[in-house]
């Protein structure tokens, strides 16, 4: 804390302490002044405690509360800081998470005004480990998949790349059941394309207002649904699509 700030913060308790001492001295001649002395002493103690508290603690607490939510995954297998920059992804041309988050805020606000649903779908790609794909092969597979999604989705649908192999969709005027159908349609289109580099396409779906009333809750519920879908990686098939329940997940 700067010296000038510390002096400024200590002035009120020092003044209060001075009043306490003066009132105590007068109390020898005028007994009711003792009450003033006691009150002034208590006020001085409280002010002194607040003056000595480091402002950095409260500042840090406020910062943690005000920071925008970012995509998170308990598995830690996918999301990267490079996908949190503002703008578009250089490989796929899709928007990144900060832009996605801002658009989701606007879409949910519109859905609230017009009384229509908004759904978030998160899609995770799992690559076939038998091929041991290189970094360039992985990037090529992601670019091909992104082009496939452009052909499959509506023009009004919003698609973002929020991780190395993770995407997020905003489907306006679509409930969670429609979101699950969209995810399955993407899976079918991938299978028909004959691409073998990607072995699984898992998806988590959450819809407003059924699964969340605010954008951050909607996104976190779709993340939890995706995590449950990823638990079924060993099952046969192209991947599981999980819709978030109407009640919170336990554990």
Features:
51% helix; single chain; 251 residues; alpha+beta; 5 strands; 2 domains; elongated; 7 helices; Alpha-Beta Plaits
Q: Can you describe this structure?
A:
The chain is α+β, with helices and mostly antiparallel strands. The protein has helices at residues 3-27, 33-52, 55-66, 97-114, 135-152, 176-193, 215-230, and strands at 118-127, 158-163, 166-172, 198-208, 241-243. It folds into two domains: 3-66; 81-243, Reverse transcriptase/Diguanylate cyclase domain (Alpha-Beta Plaits, 2-Layer Sandwich), CATH 3.30.70. It is built from seven helices and five strands; from the N terminus they run H-H-H-H-E-H-E-E-H-E-H-E. The radius of gyration is 29 Å and the shape is elongated. The model is unreliable at 54-79 (pLDDT under 50).
